[in-house]
């Protein structure tokens, strides 16, 4: 029986056909399961769908947030750095870009090989000016020694040919005086010639660093104004070395008394000579860059000495090692070159027929050997000292940045300006990069 609201006794009160479940029909309801076909034939079974991969930090309905999995433990491999400790290693086969090298050296702090190679390239890059000036200085220094040795060999040959033992003794004393006199004259000539040569070669070196060349006349014209300063520097160095030596000699002669023990005298002599040699090595090393500074920076005598003292501060042993190695190499090269001429001169002087012609030939042979040897060793040593000066400025003042900037501009314009010489004379300004500021790690 209907109550007028469309309900029947079999249905619960308040039920309506269009209400959602659980009280209404399932037909047409939006809550039907996807893929179902209410009221129609059954749909074919669908394959089970895979749930989407969980997104970390975005929990699904009814799930707790999941934290990302921990990273795998780090395994160290040889040649690699752990993460967070410096920069990663460069890839295999990586090579650091080569430094700019417009001339005889790369424009960066130099190694020992770079300095020696640069000194050799200085001679090869400008042989006319370098060797032409060196042969003049070498000949002037070799001629006095050659004359003294020629006279000594002639007297020795005369004593051998006459078989006179008394003549041999007299010849030995005379030979010592002749050779000593020739050596003293040679040292005096070297003081003048080698000083001038070192200044001129340093000026040529300053241009050769940029790949430029300079004639001997131009080098002399740019250097002659620095000659008094060069002589002043060498004179002060000589006095600083000779005065202590005079004191040492006077002390040793003062110890010679009739009752002195010979062993004690020899011990004192050895100790005093060791102390003096250490002093001479220290002073020479600290002042070895004074001549290049006087020429390139155009400073005065005392300013050049102070400049060398400052540049070698903190790098004494390295500078000392390079100076010592340079002396050893120059001595070996000079010995190899001069020995054949010395043997030939000795053969002619002792075993020859004697006479004025033999004396002249002996002197010529010795002079040629000494000149050729000095012609190579003088510019080599001057080149090493000049490049050592450039290296110390690069390390202490980052001067390589100044040289690189100038070299790039010169390469862009296609030629080396004569004004490049003025770069060396720029005074260091502490606190400005490339103008005297210390370069870390150099």
UniProtKB/TrEMBL annotation:
Domain Glycerophosphoryl diester phosphodiesterase membrane as annotated: residue spans: 269-377
Q: Which residue ranges traverse the bilayer?
A: 130-152, 184-206, 227-256, 262-295, 316-348, 360-388
User: Which keywords does UniProt give here?
Assistant: Membrane, Transmembrane, Transmembrane helix
Does the record bear Cell cycle in its keywords?
A: no
Residue ranges for the region (Disordered) are: 1-98, 422-442
The superkingdom of the source organism is Bacteria
- Pfam families in alphabetical order: GPDPase_memb
- InterPro entries registered for this protein in UniProt: GlyceroP-diester-Pdiesterase_M
Q: Bias category Pro residues: which stretches?
A: 10-23, 39-56, 66-75
Q: Does the keyword field hold Transmembrane?
A: yes
Query: What name has this protein been given in UniProt?
Result: Glycerophosphoryl diester phosphodiesterase membrane domain-containing protein
Q: Which organism is it from?
A: Streptosporangium saharense
């Amino acid at each position: 029986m209907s109550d007028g609201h469309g309900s029947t006794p079999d249905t619960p009160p308040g039920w309506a056909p269009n209400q959602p479940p659980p009280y209404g029909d399932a037909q047409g309801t939006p809550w039907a399961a996807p893929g179902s076909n209410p009221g129609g034939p059954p749909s074919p079974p669908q394959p089970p769908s895979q749930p989407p991969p969980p997104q970390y930090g975005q929990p699904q309905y009814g799930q707790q947030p999941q934290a990302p999995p921990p990273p795998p433990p780090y395994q160290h491999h040889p040649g690699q750095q752990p993460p967070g400790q410096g920069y990663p290693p460069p890839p295999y086969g990586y090579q650091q870009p080569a430094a700019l090298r417009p001339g005889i050296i790369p424009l960066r702090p130099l190694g020992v090989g770079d300095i020696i190679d640069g000194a050799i390239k200085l001679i090869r890059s400008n042989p006319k000016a370098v060797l032409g000036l060196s042969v003049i200085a070498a000949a002037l220094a070799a001629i006095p020694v050659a004359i003294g040795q020629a006279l000594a060999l002639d007297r020795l040959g005369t004593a051998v040919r006459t078989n006179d033992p008394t003549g041999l003794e007299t010849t030995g004393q005379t030979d010592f005086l002749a050779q000593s006199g020739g050596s003293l004259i040679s040292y005096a000539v070297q003081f003048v010639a080698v000083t001038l040569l070192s200044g001129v070669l340093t000026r040529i070196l300053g241009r050769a660093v940029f790949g430029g060349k300079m004639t001997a006349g131009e080098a002399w014209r740019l250097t002659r104004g620095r000659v008094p300063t060069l002589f002043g520097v060498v004179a002060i160095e000589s006095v600083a070395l000779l005065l202590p030596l005079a004191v040492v000699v006077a002390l040793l002669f003062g110890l010679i008394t009739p009752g002195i023990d010979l062993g004690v005298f020899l011990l004192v002599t050895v100790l005093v000579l060791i102390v003096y040699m250490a002093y001479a090595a220290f002073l020479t090393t600290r002042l070895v860059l004074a001549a290049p500074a006087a020429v390139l920076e155009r400073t005065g005598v005392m300013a050049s000495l102070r400049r060398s003292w400052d540049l070698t501060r903190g790098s004494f042993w390295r500078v000392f090692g390079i100076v010592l190695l340079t002396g050893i190499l120059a001595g070996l090269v000079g010995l190899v070159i001069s020995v054949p001429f010395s043997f030939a001169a000795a053969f002619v002087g002792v075993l020859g027929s004697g006479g004025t012609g033999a004396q002249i030939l002996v002197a010529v042979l010795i002079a040629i050997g000494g000149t050729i040897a000095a012609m190579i060793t003088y510019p080599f040593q001057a080149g090493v000292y000049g490049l050592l000066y450039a290296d110390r400025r690069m390390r202490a003042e980052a001067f390589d940045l100044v040289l690189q900037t100038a070299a790039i501009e010169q390469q862009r314009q296609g030629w080396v300006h004569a004004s490049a010489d003025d770069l060396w004379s720029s005074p260091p300004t502490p606190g400005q990069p490339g103008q005297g500021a210390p370069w870390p790690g150099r």
